[in-house]
């Protein structure tokens, strides 16, 4: 089984989580074969960093509301495909051949794969292999997704990593790094606007796809004096979503007050779908890391988060 020796626990069945822990004990993660998604990420103080709905369902046919769902082959609600695609509510398998990625020596890693089935081909007629490598290291969670076209014809797809972040209080959170960028507002029929604020803050529902985004985005949680830095490659879009109170009450698998302690800041290739010719492979990369915040002794300098070396 292609799991590193630093893996704490391997699942006895598909419903049990895979538990990853870095050797220093400063980070741990749980990964579900259902959806191939991270469902928990904790720091050295065992504090949860990812939001999980109080009403989340961990079994078919419902996708898991929380953690880090993988959205493929679409993001959004287009055509006959289910919203955000079907990869997030399929059972994945261990990947015995993750090449050409190098061996994950001295890291706590799991490689998973999802291959198209006959049922999938009926709703999306393209043969594919979707692979993901999930790695935990001190203060950092890294995900490397790859999509290979195993079909005789070219196809295009959307892709996103939906990051459900657990925050102290949504009204005390700010997102920096998306200033002056254009975005599509899903609350306004995908009309295009330009971000005018110095930073994104939250006092109501938000659902935006930011375009041509930088490789680094900072999510600053003032109350916890903690910053999560999102670094991404191959995914030019960033989605910012919080349903707020009215929408949260209409979502069956979300608690009425859950919106106050969650925020989605996603990495994605959404505006322009990715085109793959037969035998071609697309690769992305995302790192979520905890950056020590100086907010307790003064305002955090966002330039150190967005442009400094960590």
Automatic annotation (TrEMBL):
Pfam families: Aldose_epim (PF01263). Belongs to the glucose-6-phosphate 1-epimerase family. It catalyses: alpha-D-glucose 6-phosphate = beta-D-glucose 6-phosphate. One of its GO terms (cellular component) is cytoplasm. The gene is LOC108844720. It comes from Raphanus sativus (Radish). One of its GO terms (molecular function) is carbohydrate binding. It comes from the Eukaryota. This is glucose-6-phosphate 1-epimerase. PANTHER family: APOSPORY-ASSOCIATED PROTEIN C-RELATED (PTHR11122), GLUCOSE-6-PHOSPHATE 1-EPIMERASE (PTHR11122:SF33). GO terms for biological process: carbohydrate metabolic process. Keywords: Isomerase. Its EC number is 5.1.3.15.
């Amino acid at each position: 089984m292609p799991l590193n020796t630093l893996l704490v626990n391997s699942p006895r069945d598909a419903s049990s989580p895979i538990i990853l822990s870095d050797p220093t004990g400063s980070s741990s993660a749980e990964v579900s074969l259902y959806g191939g998604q991270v469902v928990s990420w904790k720091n050295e103080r065992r504090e949860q960093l990812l939001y999980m709905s109080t009403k989340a369902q961990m079994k078919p046919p419902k996708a898991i509301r929380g953690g880090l769902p993988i959205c493929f082959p679409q993001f959004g609600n287009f055509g006959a495909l289910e919203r955000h695609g079907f990869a997030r509510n399929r059972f994945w398998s261990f990947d015995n051949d993750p090449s050409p990625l190098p061996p994950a020596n001295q890291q706590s890693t799991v490689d998973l794969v999802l291959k198209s089935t006959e049922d999938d081909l009926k709703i999306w007629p393209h043969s594919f292999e979707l692979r993901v490598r999930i790695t935990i290291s001190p203060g950092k969670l890294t995900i490397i997704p790859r999509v290979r076209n195993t079909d005789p014809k070219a196809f295009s797809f959307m892709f996103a990593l939906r990051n459900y972040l657990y925050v102290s209080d949504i009204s005390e959170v700010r997102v920096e790094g998306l200033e002056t960028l254009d975005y599509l507002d899903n609350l306004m029929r995908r009309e295009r606007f330009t971000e005018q604020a110095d930073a994104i803050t939250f006092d109501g529902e938000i659902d935006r796809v930011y375009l041509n985004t930088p490789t680094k985005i900072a999510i600053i949680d003032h109350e916890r004096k903690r910053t999560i830095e999102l670094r991404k490659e191959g995914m030019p879009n960033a989605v910012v979503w919080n349903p707020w109170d009215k929408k949260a009450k209409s979502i069956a698998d979300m608690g009425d007050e859950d919106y106050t302690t969650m925020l989605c800041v996603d990495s994605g290739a959404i505006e322009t779908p990715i085109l793959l010719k037969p035998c071609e492979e697309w690769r992305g990369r995302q790192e979520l890391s905890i950056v020590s915040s100086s907010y307790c002794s003064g305002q955090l300098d966002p330039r150190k988060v967005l442009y400094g070396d960590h």
